[in-house]
Write a structure and sequence with these properties.
Layout: E1 2-3, E2 11-12, E3 19-24, H1 34-41, H2 47-55, E4 59-61, E5 64-65, E6 78-83, H3 87-90, E7 95-96, E8 100-104, E9 108-113, H4 130-137, E10 158-164, H5 167-178, E11 183-191, E12 198-202, E13 205-207, E14 215-217, E15 225-234, E16 237-244, H6 251-258, E17 282-290, E18 297-301, H7 306-315
Parallel strand pairs: 10-17
Antiparallel strand pairs: 1-8, 2-7, 3-6, 4-5, 4-6, 8-9, 9-10, 11-16, 11-17, 12-15, 13-14, 15-16, 17-18
Helix pairs in contact: 1-2
Length: about 325
């Protein structure tokens, strides 16, 4: 295991560049809202972003910070705005992160993603993501699609992920995932007592028509299959082993909720908090694939974080991650 940095803080490797623009309100702008004037001065930015600059005190009208985007301006007034980049424009930047590197060579990287780490920049998480950390660890990844990331884990799902370090490796790994040649195994705790054996959940997954923040089993969704194997049950919950055949967003979470066994702690899909778990009880414990260049078989196993490990032992005492059978 390699720590990229000595500390676990975040530090941007580049400071954003700020531009200041000034203008005098002319007759055509007289009576306009301030934010509309800013759009005319800086049309490359959205009105909502410019309104945010007003809220930050970065817009000055006649020498005083403007407070309201709706304020009407008058001919002859001076407007000064400090233009700062949008969060989106800063997202694809290198940041030093503490990453748990399980394996690395010149073509491929395997990391153990912790709970709470977002994989890709997105609204609300434009920095401090795995992508930002990869850009700092391997600067050449700036030339790769998504910095070499070929599959995802949800923010609060822990475990193993593989990353390509060259375009050839990214292409090969992506094709291997598409052709179901990559073994991705998860351990999970679900509500309810599941019968013994392996159950294949083959149900299309797509965006929930009733909520844009959720996915759902839906006839218009994309094909998705998850194999679920019962390992042990206790206290009204079951320890299971899941194998992904496809990789749809929230697939395991949606499929388990669909069959009436939502993940412990997964409040988005109906799972109540149990055993002190404040997040979904899901960990990607095993990853196996052929090396993208020379084809040598690679296999990695990682134990779950302490919170899930403790809850797991309450349901399946004596069944260690390494003992889990493959379905």
């Amino acid at each position: 295991m390699i720590d990229l940095e000595e500390d676990d803080g975040l530090e941007s490797t580049a400071a954003p560049e700020h531009e200041v623009r000034s203008a005098v309100v002319h007759g055509d702008w007289h009576g306009w809202r301030l934010d509309k004037v800013l759009v005319a001065m800086a049309p490359e930015f959205s009105r909502s972003h410019l309104q945010g600059l007003i809220d930050q005190g970065l817009v000055v009208l006649d020498g005083a910070a403007a407070a309201l985007a709706s304020r009407k301006v008058k001919a002859g007034q001076s407007v000064r705005v400090e233009l700062r980049p949008t969060a989106e424009s800063l997202a694809f930047r290198a940041e030093r992160l503490l990453l748990q590197v399980v394996f690395e060579d010149e073509h491929v990287l395997v990391v153990d993603k912790p709970v709470g780490l977002v994989v890709h920049p997105a609204p609300g998480h434009w920095s401090g993501t795995l992508l930002n950390g990869l850009l700092a660890h391997h600067p050449a990844s700036v030339q790769l699609p998504r910095a070499g990331i070929v599959h995802r884990l949800d923010k609060d799902t822990s475990g193993l992920m593989m990353v390509g370090k060259t375009l050839q490796a990214v292409t090969s790994l992506s094709r291997a995932i598409a052709s179901r040649e990559v073994q991705r195994l998860y351990m999970a705790l679900v509500h309810g007592v599941m019968p013994p054996g392996v159950r294949a959940v083959d149900a299309r997954v797509g965006r929930d028509p009733a909520s844009r923040t959720r996915m759902a089993v839906h006839p218009a969704g994309r094909p998705a299959r998850t194999d679920v194997q019962t390992l042990a049950s206790a206290q009204g919950c079951t320890a299971v082993h899941c194998r992904l055949h496809t990789g749809r967003t929230h697939q395991i979470r949606v499929h388990l909720a669909h069959i009436g066994h939502p993940l412990v702690g997964d409040r988005l899909y109906g799972g109540a908090v149990e055993f002190g778990l404040e997040r979904q009880a899901l960990h990607a414990w095993k990853l196996a694939f052929a090396h993208p260049i020379h084809g040598k078989p690679l296999e990695f196993v990682r134990l779950p974080p302490e919170d899930l490990a403790k809850a797991w032992q309450a349901i399946a005492p004596g069944i260690a991650t390494g003992d889990l059978p493959s379905p």
